[in-house]
Amino acid sequence: MKLNHDLVRYVLLSIESSNQVSGPTEDELMMEVKKYGSYSKDDIMYTVSKLEEAGFITGEIHYTKYKEKLKPMWMEPGNLTYEGHKFLDNVRDDGVWKHTKATVAKVGNASLGIISTVAANYISDILGL
């Protein structure tokens, strides 16, 4: 699967909006993300999995074996880590996000680390730093 950067941002925003220290439940995350658009449960689970691997969230995907293959069954989205907060703070603003996506599109695609750096550089330019 391809990592959808818009969905990455939406999942992080959705997790951050939870009032629970442990983060939202699966159902709460699904409802919150739906506010941003129509995404499948598989897409959201994949994004949660990759955000956990990247150290942006404390979430976890639980799998079961089905016909000799692992299949995702349910998720615990968890909460944002410090790295997740740093990334989200760089891309939270819609204007910064649009500029960042347009800049990254010039080269086709980029990692979340590059996206964060592009957004941070743009914010620095706006602030005159």
Count of helical regions? 6
Oligomeric state: single chain
**What structural class results from the helix and strand content?**
mainly alpha
- What string, H for helix and E for strand, traces the elements in order? HHHEEHHH
Task: Look up the CATH topology.
Answer: Arc Repressor Mutant, subunit A
Q: How helix-rich are the residues, as a percent range? A: 55-70%
Shape: globular
Number of domains: 1
Estimate the mean pLDDT confidence: 93
Strand content: 5-15%
- The total strand number stands at 2
Strands of the widest sheet, in order across it, are: 1-2
Rg, alpha carbons: 15 Å
- Largest sheet, described in full? 2 strands, antiparallel
Distance between the termini: 38 Å
CATH class: Mainly Alpha
Structure commentary:
Helix 5 (94-105) packs across helix 6. The chain is 56% helix and 12% strand. A two-stranded antiparallel ribbon has the order 1-2. A hairpin with a 2-residue loop joins strand 1 and strand 2. The termini are far apart. It has a single domain (5-127), classed as Arc Repressor Mutant, subunit A (Orthogonal Bundle), CATH 1.10.10. With 129 residues, it is mainly alpha-helical.
